[in-house]
Write a structure and sequence with these properties.
Distance between the termini: 111 Å
Largest sheet: 2 strands, antiparallel
Number of helices: 4
Shape: flat
Oligomer: single chain
Mean pLDDT: 80
Number of strands: 2
Length: 170
């Protein structure tokens, strides 16, 4: 055997060893990634698992009640306890989502505004399309309203000479 064939066999052996050893290396990186999970993510995952468990318990309780396995006097108490626990879990999940939304919103507002709106006098305009629509409607609102009808109290516009509801002169 010459040196070229030995190097080829050695290179193939290294390639096979790396291919076979890849799952072992991936486990190490997976364990590092698992350690990197934050406590908040772990709590959120636990709440989701608990929510799913409560839903399954409620379904089993309803099914057992329909089969007659659970006495009529015990069913409402057990169901109300499960519903109460489920509501607590859902409120905790909603609070977590609300905190994340607030944090992301604060992070957005900390970023400098790209261009102030010409009518905003240097104040940054809202980024959301919905908030822009609300702001435009609020700007249009004072121009259209002219007060209220003295007879029936319905709102009237500046251009109205008579109340559209009762016909009284404005």
């Amino acid at each position: 055997m010459d040196i070229g064939s030995l190097l080829l066999i050695f290179a193939l052996a290294i390639g096979v060893a790396l291919y076979i050893g890849r799952p072992i290396l991936d486990r190490r990186s997976f364990s590092r990634h698992a350690l990197a999970l934050s406590q908040a993510e772990h709590e959120h995952s636990a709440l989701l698992a608990e929510r799913d468990r409560i839903i399954r318990l409620l379904q089993e309780l309803d099914f057992d009640h329909s089969l007659g396995k659970i006495p009529e006097e015990d069913y409402p108490a057990q169901r109300s306890l499960l519903l109460q626990r489920g509501a607590e879990i859902l409120s905790q999940l909603d609070a977590d989502q609300l905190e994340k939304a607030i944090a992301s919103r604060r992070a957005q507002h900390k970023q400098p505004a790209s261009q102030p709106h010409p009518k905003s006098n240097g104040v940054s305009t809202p980024d959301d399309a919905l908030e822009q629509q609300i702001a435009s409607r609020r700007r249009q609102q004072p121009e259209k309203t002219g007060g209220f009808c003295p007879k029936c109290g319905k709102p009237v516009q500046k251009s109205d000479k008579f109340c559209p509801k009762c016909g009284a002169q404005v």
